[in-house]
Amino acid sequence: MSGSEEMSKALNATTPGFPDIPSTIVRATIVQASTVYNDTPKTIEKAEKFIAEAASDGAQLVVFPEAFIAGYPRGYRFGIGVGVHNEAGRDCFRRYHASAIVVPGPEVDKLAEIARKYKVYLVMGAMEKDGYTLYCTALFFSSEGRFLGKHRKVMPTSIERCIWGFGDGSTIPVYDTPLGKLGAAICWENRMPLYRTSLYGKGIELYCAPTADGSKEWQSSMMHIAIEGGCFVLSACQFCLRKDFPDHADYLFTDWYPDQHQEAIVSQGGSVIISPLGKILAGPNFESEGLITADLDLGDVARAKLYFDVVGHYSRPEIFNLTVNETPKKPVTFVSKSVKAEDDSEPQDK
């Protein structure tokens, strides 16, 4: 029995007239695994195997890491240097672009079908291509197999900015689902206080954090967000070995261990699920691929917000106020004006 359940039973037992309100329990699973690089169909096959395993254990929500489809390009340099352009870098980008997916598109349809087949809500990290620009994107699917929409990462980090585009305010969704209010912040977006506040303002309860940050320090950020937002945080990171990546002399890995061989860990995972009360419910796993699963008592959201509601009773809107521009930003807008042609068919005055 969880601490919150014990508290609820104690209150019911000691407070006259205190109603016995059943809690909503959601079983959530994080998939901690590596992309199959340069092979999107096999990556989706691998994803389905993990989803099937999670569903067989009763999962209702399944969350994947950042850029699981097409892959997080850890160590890739794309031949980039200030004032430097080279053919090897261009060809590396060509291959990476080929692994990305169009949204919506056939791969999105396949993922929707997988969500329907296993009756799970699905949050999938993917590289999206819009023409020849790539976006780091989180895709959302319902258990009925409907593609709900997407979130594009609004601020790529460091050299990511050389290869990924920037999302705008039009894709910062929080979906009101039967499981709870569901949304996402990707990797170091989680360090952006105003971005977090925009999600809190939409009432997020199931806060997904697909990431490529497997550091121990990341755990502190996730704990803080759970407590600050009064929400469940599900942080999903890939676990990758050096051998999971294509061979390339230009890759620059930072191994977590000094022995640089094919079994060396280059992305150590650390996926974790944390409650609104700051309790670690599952994980972190720094050792292997696998599933991280926990039962989420949504009653903990209300319990947490008794004392702190960051966009409610603990806010001071007359002093601090956030405005979020959700207007889509298009680089090119075409405006056509329909002009009625002069009708020459009528007889003219003589």
From TrEMBL:
Q: Which reactions fall under this protein's catalytic activity? A: 3-cyano-L-alanine + 2 H2O = L-aspartate + NH4(+); L-asparagine = 3-cyano-L-alanine + H2O
Record keywords, A-Z = Hydrolase
Single annotated GO MF: cyanoalanine nitrilase activity
Q: Which PANTHER family match?
A: NITRILASE, NITRILASE 2
Identify the species of origin: Brassica oleracea var. oleracea
Enzyme Commission code: 3.5.5.1
Which domain of life does this protein belong to?
A: Eukaryota
Gene Ontology biological process terms in this record: detoxification of nitrogen compound
Residues of the active site: E66
Question: Which residue spans adopt a coiled-coil conformation according to this UniProt entry?
Answer: none
Q: By what name is this protein known?
A: nitrilase
Similarity-based family: Belongs to the carbon-nitrogen hydrolase superfamily. Nitrilase family.
Q: Which parts of the sequence belong to the CN hydrolase domain?
A: 26-298
